[in-house]
Amino acid sequence: MFEIKLTARLKTVADNVYPLAAPLNYKSPAVIYNPVNVEPTRNINDDLENSAFMDFQIDVYSTSFLEAKTLARTIRNNLKAWQDTDVQAVAYLDEKGSVDNTTQTQLFRVMTFYKFFVTD
Amino acid sequence: MSAFTANLAGFRQLEARMANLAKVEATKAGQIANRAGASVLAKKIRDTAPDGPLAEGATVNRVRKGGQTVTETHHKIKNWIKIKKTKSDSTEKVQNSVYVAKGYHAAFVEFGSIHNAPNPFFRTAFEQNQQAIVDAMKKVMERQLIKRGV
What we know:
Structural class of chain B: alpha+beta
Shape of chain B: elongated
Largest sheet of chain B: 2 strands, antiparallel
Order of helices and strands of chain B: HHEEEEHHH
Number of helices of chain A: 2
Radius of gyration of chain B: 20 Å
Number of strands of chain A: 5
Number of strands of chain B: 4
Radius of gyration of chain A: 15 Å
Strand content of chain B: 5-15%
Largest sheet of chain A: 5 strands, mixed
Oligomer: heterodimer
Distance between the termini of chain A: 6 Å
Structural class of chain A: alpha+beta
Shape of chain A: elongated
Largest interface: A-B, 27 and 16 residues
Strand content of chain A: over 45%
Order of helices and strands of chain A: HEEEHEE
Distance between the termini of chain B: 37 Å
């Protein structure tokens, strides 16, 4: 499953990696990834394959904007170089910055968007 | 996030027809066609927008930072997907924006927050209906040009 590989990959550059949402006792800087669109490929019989184009939103949250920005860039450079038998292509799509005021602590957030082509 | 992808054809013929119109009429036709595309997108977003249990106009209490509680009126996202004509950066271009007029929580739903996963209803509607948007614009543009005799 791709998410397992993505977690392992992100953990090589960030200590606190969470799928979907951070727990209440999260540690900062926090990296949260979400699949936002999955398009499985179809074979000649029109059956769904395990390979797919997957769009991910990868967010970095920190109380320091510079820390969030720097980590987001480290992740981008790390993912850009990622290619193995199951992850055949990685495309960086976009980046947005924002402030998350939904918790008592104000958090800076760098949202990045990627498209992967994975075969498992 | 992804590029706009749709099948487009007939620009040479379109340009020739538009050249026979006064600029103000060409702009009007383009604006109406552009809005038709925006209407398709707005409808698709309404169809995919989350619809929670709270009714439109319901009173909700929200706790602000520091513990202060404020009473607010709830607005359903799907009821407030609107279109507005926006100023373009060129006199050769018309544009409309599809936006959420009320319902401050729409951005939290679309992009998530530290403790909430995103539900990208807006982006999904856009990405899945690019051809439908272009087709609607084409259909309305054709009608507008015929109406103007070109």
